[in-house]
Design goal:
Elements: H1 11-19, E1 25-33, H2 39-52, E2 56-62, E3 65-73, H3 77-85, E4 96-97, E5 108-112, E6 133-135, H4 137-144, E7 149-153, H5 157-160, E8 163-165, H6 176-186, E9 194-198, H7 203-214, E10 220-223, H8 226-237, E11 243-247, E12 256-257, E13 276-278, E14 287-289, H9 292-297, H10 304-310, H11 314-320, H12 327-330
Parallel strand pairs: 2-5, 6-10, 7-9, 9-10
Antiparallel strand pairs: 1-3, 1-4, 2-3, 8-11, 11-12, 13-14
């Protein structure tokens, strides 16, 4: 096409640019399961159209559909809808608008994937379009009052750690792929009960509810639009908010507050805290929860080891990195908890 379809500008330059940007931005997400015969062709066309409206974000495209999270100028939302409405399978698609704003993305990245959500399933074994019944916030609250209803969090442990629905089953998993068989075991004696599933924006439940129906669960529901849309409807309708804590999001904000309760603790000192961060030592980069005091004391790293490592000259860090073990190489996402006795690893 004669035009670069990837961003190659240094991320620090991009971050500084957006911090100095004057226009208001909106963070949103969307997804659609659809048949895309040529993902690469669609990807390049999509990139060019989104670049025209100064869109940033992370979008995955596969033969099974598209899954995206984006940041766009607030006055370009209607232009984005126009772009979508010129693409047959994206016409009138729902946009999940973020509850809280902040710098979410600093560049536009669109990647081709085998699937738009990694699930480890053989999709030819069931029909993803035959998912659970979509329900809104009002219906969710109504079902949640019923003792025969089982509410299941289809997200990962580090997401539910900072926020979840009251009385929900929150599986101790790191990936969606891992959660599917584990949740099935947790629900094996509940096939005749009403099963209500939820996730961040709805895409994981779209696949999971179809899978569980295929596995013999009859009364399966999914929260339409996920936690994001639920929070919006609760505020608009003035109804009870049954979500406690924070909604983890997969962008630079790492979370948006849904209720004022703080249900988790700083992984370093143990004080109430629900702010995720990535260790500032790029050789570690583990995701963990850190309060403001510990962020100062550890200079935004997860340990004294990482703090000291970050102070070394770049050449020395490069030399030591291949032979040094950090929390990021020892633990999975959000698994790290500091030794509070001395906080030294």
């Amino acid at each position: 096409m004669g035009k670069r379809l990837h961003n190659k500008v240094n991320k620090e330059v991009l971050r500084e640019k957006i911090q100095n940007e004057q226009e208001e931005r909106v963070t949103l997400s969307f997804y659609k399961y659809a048949h895309i015969p040529n993902p690469q062709l669609f990807r390049d066309h999509f990139y060019l159209k989104l670049e025209e409206i100064n869109a940033f974000g992370r979008i995955y495209i596969a033969k099974e559909g598209v899954n995206g999270q984006m940041s766009i100028p607030a006055d370009h939302v209607n232009k984005l809808r126009e772009i979508f409405n010129h693409i047959e399978f994206l016409k009138n698609i729902r946009l999940n608008i973020a509850i809280e704003e902040g710098i979410s993305f600093i560049k536009l990245t669109i990647k081709i994937r085998d699937k738009i959500v990694a699930d480890g399933l053989a999709d030819d074994g069931f029909d993803v379009t035959k998912g659970g019944q979509h329900i809104d916030a009002v219906k969710f609250n109504e079902l949640a009052e019923n003792e025969d209803v089982v509410i299941v969090d289809m997200r990962n442990h580090y997401e539910s750690e900072v926020g979840h629905f009251k009385d929900a089953i929150c599986p101790d998993v790191e990936t969606f792929r891992e959660s599917l068989p584990i949740v099935e075991v947790l629900l094996e004696d509940k096939k005749n009960q009403h099963i209500v599933m939820y996730c961040t924006g709805g895409i994981r439940c779209e696949k999971a509810s179809a899978y569980y129906k295929h596995r013999g669960f009859d009364k399966v529901y999914q929260l339409d639009g996920g936690i994001i849309e639920y929070a919006r409807q609760v505020e608009k309708l003035g109804i009870e908010n049954k979500f406690i804590g924070k909604n983890f999001v997969f962008d630079d904000r790492l979370g948006e507050r849904i209720s004022q309760e703080i249900i988790s603790n700083c992984h370093q000192c143990g004080k109430p805290c629900d702010s995720h961060t990535n260790c500032a030592n790029d050789a570690c980069h583990i995701l963990f929860i850190q309060c403001t005091d510990c962020a100062v004391n550890y200079e935004s790293t997860c340990s004294h080891k990482c703090k000291d490592f970050n102070k070394l000259p770049i050449a020395e860090r490069d030399r030591l990195k291949p032979m040094t073990e950090f929390n990021g190489t020892k633990f999975g996402k959000g698994r790290y908890k500091a030794n509070r006795k001395d906080n030294i690893l």
